[in-house]
């Protein structure tokens, strides 16, 4: 699905080196664990150090990874410590899962879409179809709706030596950056567009030509003409990449990736060698990041969206409902096609639909129209 030549990629990567703080630095070492109130006798192995690589070279997602690491280090009271390494410190992002499986790395912080090539079902644990739910409910399905059992079943079928935790409910990702205002789906047909995971299949179905690129290569690719349009994740990351320098048309709201979360994965052998207390710290620190991520990132995204508009002159639009309806139709085609080919994929989709139908029935009936209240106060 990559529509680019080796020369194109080489030229893009050369420019990436100069792009802002996102690509700076080679390693980020998490804060040293405090001598806290968790007494040493509760930690089975003193001084255990885990080497964990993040898929992020800087910016808010590396901050999020460091927040998890700091939480673990403080809770462990010196008995367990994570050393956090930034993107490409040991292996490339595409090699991270294999490196953890083999024990080259003890762990990784990334998103499931980054190992989509091994199984289409990977995206269902991150950026799957929207059944009326948000990332909050998707994480609810993982923790309480049978999703974790299905994930472990997938790990078994792929023979991957991994233990994973999921956290950080991301808001819907913008449709992204274009050279003009998008009012209908036909405007996008034939455009070279960057996205990843199952979203690539969806946008291909809508007539776009998808190019899958790492985050740090997006802005240079659009500047050079390698791609015509792109999305990454949020106003903060997009600003750090410098997308406002190559486009002035930013479209929020989309169903191509309407929910996503981080995956923190560990080598299973290494994880099982830890004490029960240490294992619990890794798990519950992940759960704690759900709230921290939402509170922290939502405010940053809101602030940076205003800066894009007021400081950089970016035109900000809400993607038309007609375009999003076409996305849902494209999702139906993609999900039905893959389900017919992959029984496990179909099994996961069935489980997600069952959970979403029940939970969202309650939430949609119970939740007032918050937009109505917003307009009442702010116009």
Structural overview:
With 379 residues, this protein is an alpha/beta fold. The protein folds into two domains: 21-171 and 260-300, Bacterial extracellular solute-binding protein, family 7 (D-Maltodextrin-Binding Protein, domain 2, 3-Layer(aba) Sandwich), CATH 3.40.190; 176-257 and 303-351, 3-Layer(aba) Sandwich (D-Maltodextrin-Binding Protein, domain 2), CATH 3.40.190. The protein has helices spanning 6-16, 59-76, 96-102, 135-144, 147-158, 198-205, 218-224, 235-241, 268-272, 276-310, 321-341, 343-366, 370-378, and strands at residues 48-54, 80-85, 107-110, 162-170, 176-178, 192-194, 209-211, 229-230, 249-252, 260-267, 315-318. A five-stranded mixed sheet has the order 2-1-3-10-4. Strand 6, helix 6 (198-205) and strand 7 (209-211) form a beta-alpha-beta unit. The chain is globular, with a radius of gyration of 21 Å.
Strand content: 5-15%
Q: What value does the Rg take, in angstroms?
A: 21 Å
CATH homologous superfamily caption of the largest domain: Bacterial extracellular solute-binding protein, family 7
CATH top level assignment of the largest domain: Alpha Beta
Globular, elongated, flat, extended or rod-shaped: what is the shape? globular
The description of the largest β-sheet is: 5 strands, mixed
Helix and strand run:
HEHEHEHHEEEHEHEHEEHHEHHH
**Which consecutive residue ranges, at least 5 long each, have pLDDT under 50?**
1-45
Total number of distinct structural domains: 2
For the record, the CATH architecture of the largest domain stands as 3-Layer(aba) Sandwich
- Count of alpha/pi helices: 13
């Amino acid at each position: 699905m990559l529509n680019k030549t080796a020369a194109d990629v080489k030229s893009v990567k050369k420019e990436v080196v100069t792009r802002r703080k996102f690509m700076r630095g080679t390693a980020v070492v998490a804060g040293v664990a405090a001598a806290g109130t968790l007494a040493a006798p509760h930690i089975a192995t003193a001084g255990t150090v885990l080497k964990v690589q993040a898929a992020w070279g800087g910016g808010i997602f590396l901050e999020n990874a460091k927040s998890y690491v700091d939480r673990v280090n403080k809770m462990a009271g010196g008995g367990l410590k994570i050393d956090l390494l930034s993107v490409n410190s040991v292996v490339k992002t595409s090699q991270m899962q294999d490196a953890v499986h083999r024990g080259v790395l003890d762990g990784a912080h990334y998103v499931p879409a980054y190992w989509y090539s091994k199984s289409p079902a990977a995206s269902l644990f991150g950026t799957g179809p929207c059944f009326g739910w948000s990332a909050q409910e998707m994480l609810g399905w993982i923790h309480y709706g049978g999703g974790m059992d299905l994930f472990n079943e997938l790990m078994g079928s792929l023979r991957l030596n991994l233990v994973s935790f999921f956290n950080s409910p991301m808001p819907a990702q913008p449709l992204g950056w274009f050279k003009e205002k998008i009012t209908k789906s036909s405007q996008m047909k034939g455009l070279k567009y960057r996205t990843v995971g199952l979203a690539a299949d969806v946008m291909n179905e809508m007539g776009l030509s998808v190019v899958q690129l790492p985050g740090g290569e997006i802005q240079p690719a659009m500047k050079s003409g390698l791609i015509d349009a792109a999305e990454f994740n949020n106003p903060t990351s997009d600003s750090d990449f410098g997308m406002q320098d190559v486009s002035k048309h930013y479209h929020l709201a989309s169903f191509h990736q309407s929910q996503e979360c981080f995956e923190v994965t560990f080598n299973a052998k290494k994880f099982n060698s830890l004490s029960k207390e240490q294992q619990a710290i890794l798990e519950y620190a992940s759960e704690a990041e759900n709230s921290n991520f939402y509170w922290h990132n939502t405010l940053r995204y809101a602030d940076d969206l205003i800066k894009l508009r007021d400081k950089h002159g970016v035109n900000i639009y809400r993607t038309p409902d007609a375009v999003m309806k076409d996305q849902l139709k494209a999702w139906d085609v993609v999900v039905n096609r893959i389900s017919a080919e992959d029984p496990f994929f179909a099994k996961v989709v069935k489980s997600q639909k069952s959970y979403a139908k029940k939970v969202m029935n309650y939430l949609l009936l119970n939740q007032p129209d918050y937009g109505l209240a917003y307009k009442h106060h702010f116009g």
